[in-house]
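*** Protein under study ***
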Amino acid sequence: MKKEKYMKINATKFGLAGGVISGIGILVMTLFASYFPGWSNLMLEAYGRFGYSLNGIGIFLGLVYGFIDGFIGFWLLAIIYNKLLK
């Protein structure tokens, strides 16, 4: 059987894309916290001990923390995907 060739993912670019999406998602959910009470409570539990809150500074911190989490998660996903191709 012929082995199919698959392209590898650039882990850094994939991580950056995931970080931007995650950061913007948390930013939007923080801005509209009254519409997402379940998510707001979850984010407060996850990031509250790092200074995150539902105010102006919390919006910025949510964006930063979301970017970091998204980058690491998507970067690891790309690394694992590339390892499984070998």
Remarks:
- Residues 6 and 86 are 10 Å apart (CA to CA).
- The chain has a mean pLDDT of 90.
- The chain is about 70% helix and 0% strand.
- The chain has one domain: 11-84.
